[in-house]
Design a protein that fits this description.
By secondary structure, this protein is mainly α. Helices cover 63% and strands 0% of the residues. It has helices spanning 6-15, 30-53. Helix 1 (6-15) runs parallel beside helix 2 (30-53). The chain is elongated. The N and C termini lie far apart (45 Å).
Length: 54
Amino acid sequence: MTDRDPFAEGERAARENIPAEGNPYQDGSNEHALWAAGHEKVASAMEARESEGS
């Protein structure tokens, strides 16, 4: 068993510009949902900052 944190992995993926389609977890699993939530949190914040700067 690992101590992986899907939410944190999703956040990191968004910071590294990995698209949401890159979610490594099985669709429908709790891990998939957590990864997607982490990705969306960071991606939304990045988009908001970009729109404020334009």
